[in-house]
Structures are given as C-alpha cells and as structure tokens.
C-alpha cells in the first residue's frame, strides 16, 4: 500500500512538492482554499484581459523545467518559454536605460558610463558568482535540521565566504560608482521583499542571476507554470480538492496524523504544509508543544517582508512605443523610498514596476489592446502607519499615473483605462493567508535566513513538513521550488 500525504495549499511549493511525492510513489491529495491552483501565482480574467496576479519574472528557468523533467516529461510541452532581450527598461528622472543580459550590449552601455564602472561591474560579477556557488552548494539546496548542520568548522568557513555581514547597497557601492548602475544592481532585493540598504549582500546574487542566466517569458504568462504543474500532478494520479479551507493540522502524540476539515478528521501518513509558515503555526498547529519556539508572541515579533499594491489595468490601445515587457520606474531617491517602506510610511514618490505580458502573448488582451500590471512595493500590515482603504489606493493610483504620463509611450495612460482591479496588502492577507499581508513571507534578514529560518522539518513533531516562502531557503519562485525539493527529500528520508 502506498503511503498517503495531505498537502495544504496549491501554491508553487505545494504543487511542486505534490508532484515530487506523487512521482515517488506516494498517494497525494492537495487541499486548496481558493478555486484554482497557484497560490499567489494566480490569474485574473476581466473584461477580456488576462493578468498574472503575483510573480511575473522568470529567472533560473532550469528550476522551472526540473519539476517536469523529474516526471519524465518534456517541459517545452508544458511551459514553452523564450528569453527576453533586453531584459527590462529602467526609467530614471530624465533617462531610460535598456538593460541587456547580452554581455556585448551591456559592456557597450557601461562604457558609456565610464570604463571604471565596466571594471567594477565585471569584478562584482566574479565576486558574487563565487559566493553564489558556495551558497548554492552549502546553503540554498540543503536543509538545516540540527544546529550542528550549521555550527561546525567547515560550514562556518563556508558562511564566511558568503560575506553576508555587508549590506547589498554597500557591497555594490564598492564596485560601481554610477548611482543609476548601483540602483539597477540593487533594487532586485525587493523581489524577495527586503531593502538593499539592510538586505544581506548575498542578495546581490539576484541581478547576477539575471545577467548570467537571463530573464524568460512563459507563453500565456506566469500562470501557465501553475496550471501546468496542476495538469502534471493530475496526470500522475494526484487529487486536488478546491474551495477547501483546512481548520487544523491534527497532531497526536507528537505526530501529525492528518488534517481537520469542517470539524472532520481526514487521516494521512504525512502532512506537507504550504500555507504561509507564520499563519500555519498560529492557526493550524493548535498543539502548544508542537509549536516549539514559534509561539504566537514569537511569530508577531518576527520581521516581515514588504507587501505590494498591484494594479491591473485594461487599456484601450496597444503601447507600441514602450519597448519592453518589464519596466522599472525609479523615483528620485530609491534609498529614501525604501527606507520609508520599511518604516511604514505612506509614500509620496514611490518607485514601481510595469509588466505588459500582452506584448509577448497577444491572447492575454483583446485585439488592439494591452493589459498593464503595475506593482508598487509598500509596507506590510504590521509596519504600516496607515490604513488600506479607497483613499490609500487612489493616493497611489494618481501618483503612478502622474509619473507615467511624463514617460514616452505612456502619455495618454489615464484616458486609456477601460478596466481596473487591485490586489492590496489586505487582499494578500485574506486571499492567500500571507501573514501581515507580507507578499514574500518572513523577511530574509541575517537572523531569519539559513539555519535561523523555519525549516522543512519542525523539531517537535514527526510526519509534518513545511514548504513555501517563509521557510528555508526563502522567497521567489526559483527558491520556493528549491524549498519543495528540500521538504520532499526530508520526508522521503524519514520514511526510509
């Protein structure tokens, strides 16, 4: 008889874990509170427009492909993708820079800024690549089940090689002097919800990954990844229950024995939880002993990543003068902007990101029209010194539109809008159980990373495993796919 696993949540890590376990011979059922798969990798259809709700940038495509390859499938049949070049446009006060991952184009552009910065940039790439190899080998792809997994002379030596005690900003400033280039190399820490001013310098890995491995686009947008994982899981014989919110993870005698649903117990040999770790510990794990150090008080005292306001605008025209799918608009002072986000202030000059998926795939918008996804990083709900209401949304809406009107190609933006929807921090909390509305889960500060971060295997309870952005190794789709790999390997190891 094959053993059974209940997976809570059909987010990216939940789906990837379920595929891995079903493929390894377990009988897996996913319980998902929403009516569709993907978690924050959701999809919104409105007025003929189709939008990705959350993640939008594909990095490290081999990790996306791995989920299909391990089940003996050809990923191109499920998630056909192509590389974007330029990767994105960066808009500053009075200029636009197209950022390419083609080294020839990139060097040509950098030489325009000054040869010193070319030397600096190449030195940054070498340094961060060396650290990336160490991080990948010894930290990102492995669990930390026991303190001794980290605290031993060999691992301490590896950890020092990571130079994590420096901030991302400071470490980039050592290599390049041009302020715009510094911003282009540091804003990506926001992909994991932390500010480059206080994010460990290791997170400057993110732009390096873009330059060395490129940025990709999946046909149909990011949601294709979620729907294709769902399709593969069902092909492998897995089961998914939608519109099904779990009340509790059943723990008896220090052991997870299943889940509770509408007060009824459903038994399984193992439980894999992809609900956000802080939410799950507070609401689904009722057994005090099983919580261990993660008491309600501890969870409230932890630091959370930023949240986002996302606007989904259906436009009455094609934005042909805008060259790229991904566009980053920097306010005058990114540093100040980020400081304000993590201090909970309402922003006056927000930096934001514009994603136009219909440029790559015309089926995502009605003929002759484009859909604009606009994301503004904002404070999480525990930090925020203001309420989220219609007034707050319109404060940000007018700010973004006024800024875009000054950018070539977007001048008529306000009158072009024919459809409009939003996801606010409150929605992230309500819809996706993201604790404090923090889009990227627990903030990856030094004391909330690696062995300090919640692990796949909790210490005080057997047969229960956690996966997703608040667990080790962290947030961002490629990293969350890695968390699924770690969590399933831990489960299979214990089962053996």
What do you see in this structure?
- The chain is an alpha/beta fold.
- Among the domains are: 4-41 and 62-71 and 220-301 and 441-495, FAD/NAD(P)-binding domain, CATH 3.50.50; 101-216, no CATH class.
- It has 18 helices and 19 strands.
- The chain has a 7-stranded mixed beta sheet. A 5-stranded parallel beta sheet has the order 9-2-1-13-19, with helices on one face.
- A hairpin with a 2-residue loop joins strand 3 and strand 4.
- Helix 1 packs parallel to helix 18 (477-495).
- 52% of the residues are buried.
- The mean pLDDT is 88.
List the helices and strands and how they pair.
Elements: E1 4-8, H1 12-23, E2 27-31, E3 43-46, E4 49-52, H2 61-69, H3 75-78, E5 81-84, E6 88-91, E7 96-99, H4 103-113, H5 115-140, H6 153-161, H7 168-173, H8 179-186, H9 205-213, E8 215-218, H10 223-235, E9 239-241, E10 248-251, E11 256-261, E12 264-267, E13 270-273, H11 277-283, H12 288-291, H13 296-301, E14 307-315, E15 326-329, H14 334-343, E16 352-355, E17 371-378, H15 390-404, H16 413-416, E18 417-423, H17 425-432, E19 464-466, H18 477-495
Parallel strand pairs: 1-2, 1-13, 2-9, 6-15, 13-19
Antiparallel strand pairs: 3-4, 5-8, 6-7, 10-11, 11-12, 14-17, 14-18, 15-16, 16-17
């Amino acid at each position: 008889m094959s053993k059974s696993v209940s997976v809570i949540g059909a987010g990216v890590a939940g789906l990837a874990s379920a595929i891995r376990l079903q493929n390894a011979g377990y009988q897996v059922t996913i319980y998902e509170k929403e009516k569709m798969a993907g978690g924050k990798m959701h999809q919104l259809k409105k007025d003929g427009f189709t939008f990705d709700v959350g993640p939008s940038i594909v990095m490290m495509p081999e990790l996306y492909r791995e989920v299909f390859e391990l089940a003996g499938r050809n990923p191109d049949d499920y998630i056909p993708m192509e590389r974007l070049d330029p990767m994105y446009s960066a808009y500053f006060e009075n200029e636009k820079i197209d950022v390419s991952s083609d080294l020839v184009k990139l060097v040509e552009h950098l030489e325009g800024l000054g040869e010193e910065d070319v030397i600096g940039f190449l030195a940054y790439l070498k340094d961060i690549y060396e650290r990336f190899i160490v991080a990948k080998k010894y930290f990102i792809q492995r669990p930390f089940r026991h303190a001794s997994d980290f605290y031993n002379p060999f691992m301490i030596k590896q950890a020092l090689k990571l130079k994590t005690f420096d901030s991302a900003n400071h470490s980039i400033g050592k290599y390049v002097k041009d302020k715009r280039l510094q911003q282009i190399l540091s804003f990506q820490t926001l992909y994991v919800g932390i500010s480059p001013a206080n994010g460990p310098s290791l997170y400057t890995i993110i732009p390096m990954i873009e330059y060395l491995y490129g940025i990709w686009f999946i046909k149909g947008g990011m949601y294709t990844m979620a729907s294709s994982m769902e399709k593969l899981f069902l092909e492998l014989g897995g089961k998914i229950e939608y519109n099904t919110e779990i009340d509790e993870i059943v723990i008896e005698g220090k052991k997870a024995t299943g889940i509770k649903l509408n007060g009824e117990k459903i038994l399984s040999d193992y439980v894999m939880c992809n609900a956000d770790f802080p939410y799950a510990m507070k609401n689904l794990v009722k057994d005090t002993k099983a919580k261990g150090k993660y008491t309600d008080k501890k969870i409230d005292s932890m630091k959370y990543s930023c949240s986002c306001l996302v606007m989904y605008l259906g436009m009455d025209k094609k934005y042909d003068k805008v060259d790229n799918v991904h566009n980053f608009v920097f306010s005058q002072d990114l540093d100040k902007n980020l400081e304000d986000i993590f201090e909970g202030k309402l922003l006056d000059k927000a930096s934001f990101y514009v994603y136009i998926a219909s440029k790559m795939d015309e089926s995502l918008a009605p003929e002759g029209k484009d859909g604009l996804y606009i994301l503004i990083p904002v404070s999480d709900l525990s930090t925020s010194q203001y309420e989220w209401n219609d007034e707050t949304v319109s404060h940000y809406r007018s700010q973004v539109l006024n800024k875009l009107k000054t950018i070539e190609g977007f001048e008529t933006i306000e009158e072009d809008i024919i459809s409009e929807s939003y996801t606010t921090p409150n929605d992230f909390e309500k819809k996706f159980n993201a604790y404090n509305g923090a889009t990227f889960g627990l903030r990856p500060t030094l004391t909330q990373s690696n062995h300090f971060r919640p692990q796949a295997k909790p210490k005080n309870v057997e047969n229960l495993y956690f996966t997703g952005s608040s667990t080790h190794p962290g947030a961002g789709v490629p990293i969350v796919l890695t968390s699924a790999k770690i969590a399933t390997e831990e489960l299979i190891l214990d089962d053996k």
